Structure formats: structure tokens, C-alpha cells
């Protein structure tokens, strides 16, 4: 199935595009494409060893399940109004690409996390990032107290955790109010830490909402901190764009629209939003016209590519990099005339990415092998090894 799409957009009609995407997503066109949540298994040390774990925490109704559904399941934000409250800890593996390979643990607010029977040490030990969601439209004093308790306990167990605070639901606040709320929360959270003599703990703050791209942008930054290959990817992107006359390039995880790397020029929100919209267009159209008659096939494969010409002499160019990653570039029209050069450089870039990917796969495989050997070496209760060694 070929997916060459040539668009010539007269205007950056973000509004109308938004409506179109909303309708398509609400129809649940490709929801089967996503991993399903699985129940918590505490006795699974191997998974924490290989995959950095992201914990999603916060008070009840702060928006945790909504964030997870919108970012990883393409649920439309309005549908989250009908989400039932979570009463189990829910662990989801998001291992759709080797670069975005982590777990989200959605904690229901009402669980007493510090119940002595609850093994929080075990949970924090394998955690890469702890996202704490604060509802900015509500009184946040209780949330701040909970944040402090959570952060201090988690830090004691594992000082390497990245603490990421999502000041959430900011769509309901005016611009001034947003800044004021962020300042206030930042100040209070850090004062609480200083009072406890823990000023060395670093908290990162993000203003987020599921009703715009801020939640994807924030998640991108959280995930990037957990990708050890990030400097290599950035370097590759820098080399690629400077040799191809490209203005800006993002490496996207197509399913979640998290950008896992970009070149070192600054990112502006509008550029990122345009890339997200482009991915939506490509996947939505592929879902409608690209699948086989019986509905089989995938909406994204080796042939996936798209060119969108904007009326401001910019060209958006999307190409498949790996099964789950896409490169989206911003190119000036005059530079796009040398498309052959861009394509050649892209070919080299893709090869390099695959090599980075291969190294990682080798490490994962050898760790798996070692863990398997260790398991088998462990004697059974009567002291005999499980397998001949
Ligand atoms: N205005 C607004 N409402 C949100 C946002 N995120 C979530 N919500 C709403 O907050 C409510 C609680 O969300 P839920 O995900 O169930 O919270 P949880 O208990 O933390 O999992 C739902 O009605 C959501 O629609 C947001 O960014 N903005
Ligand atoms: Mg929930």
C-alpha cells in the first residue's frame, strides 16, 4: 500500500484541521493499534531493569487517567469526561518503539500510598521519572502536601528519580493566572523542601492541558530525559539538517506524538503543533484509504511519507525511519528543490539510527539472557539447581 500524499495547503487552517482530526479520532479509527493496560505485577524485577519506569501520581480527579488516555490511546479530550475513576493500580507498557520504552503506573488517588503493607520502596527503586499531577483549577494545598510527602519518600529510596510536576488543566486559566499559579506552586513546593533540608531535590514544572499540545510537549521532555541515546540522536539530526539545508527536524514516536529528539535549534510550540497535526493527517488518511478491504494492514509502514506545502514557502516533509519512528522536517521551498540530496542524506541518517537501535537491542538481549541464566542458577528449595548448568 503506497502512502504518498501531496498536499498544498493554502492556509495554516489549524482550526478546521483540529475539527477534522477530532471527528476522525472520536470514531476510534485506530485504537486497536495501542497496547492494553495490564495489572500490576510486583514480582517482575526484570521489567524494571530494562525499561525505565514512569509513575503517574496525584490526587483523585487531577487528570491522570485522562493524560494517559489522550497521549497513548488517542482518546479525544472530551471523551475523558466519561472516564470512570480508577480503583486499581494500573501498569501499562508503552514499548512500541525501542526508544520509547517505559511504563506508566496510574495510581488511583484514594489508595493510601504510605500504608505500611504497601511496598513503596520496591516501586520507587525502579522508577526513572515520577510525574505528579496537580489540578490547577482546584485548591492545590492538599496536592502540595501530598507532593511533598511523595517526593521526600521517593528521594530517600531512589535519589536518581526525575521529579516532574504537571500543573494540569491550565486551559481554564488566563495567561496571567497561569504564570501566577506556576510561580506560587514552584515557590511553595521548593519552600517545603527547603524547610525539610532537602533543597538539593530538583523539581521540574510544566503547564499542561489535554485540550492542546502542551501535554504532548511535556511528556516529550519527560521521556527525553530517560533516553540514554539522546545526545547521539541530537548529533545525528544536527549533521543531517546542516548538510541538507533543512530548518528544523523532529524524530517522532508516531503512536504517541512524543518527539524523542530534535536538532539543537530552539523548539517553538507552533512548529511542534504543526508536526503533530501532520502525523494525524497522515495516519488518519492511511486508516481510511490505506488499509486493506478487510481492515487488515497497518496505517504506518516503510512506504509512509508525506509532503505538505504551506503558503509561507515552507515545506513539511515526513518520512518513515523505523517501524514506529518518523522524521518530520521543516524545509524552505528553495532548499526542497534539492530533494534528491535530502533523500540521500536521509538514507544515511536512517542507517545510522538503525545502528543505534541495533546496539540497544543487543544490550537488551544480553541482559535478558543474563537474567534468564541467573533465574535458572537459583537453587530450588531442596538445593538442586533447576537446570543442568
Ligand atoms: N479542563 C480540563 N479538564 C481535564 C483535563 N484533564 C482531565 N480533565 C478532567 O478531569 C476529570 C478527572 O480526570 P481523571 O483522568 O479521571 O482523573 P484521575 O482521577 O486523576 O485519573 C475528568 O472529568 C477529565 O475530563 C484538562 O487538561 N483540562
Ligand atoms: Mg484515574
Automatic annotation (TrEMBL):
Residues 1-17 form the signal peptide. PROSITE patterns: PROKAR_LIPOPROTEIN. Residues 367-389 are annotated as: Disordered. This is Ras-related GTP-binding protein. Keywords: Cytoplasm, GTP-binding, Hydrolase, Lysosome, Membrane, Nucleotide-binding, Nucleus, Signal. Guanine nucleotide-binding protein that plays a crucial role in the cellular response to amino acid availability through regulation of the mTORC1 signaling cascade. It catalyses: GTP + H2O = GDP + phosphate + H(+). Residues 367-378 have a biased composition (Basic residues). The keyword Cytoplasm applies. It is found in: Cytoplasm; Lysosome; Lysosome membrane; Nucleus. The gene is RRAGD. GO terms for biological process: cellular response to amino acid starvation; cellular response to amino acid stimulus; negative regulation of autophagy; positive regulation of TORC1 signaling. Its main location: cytoplasm.
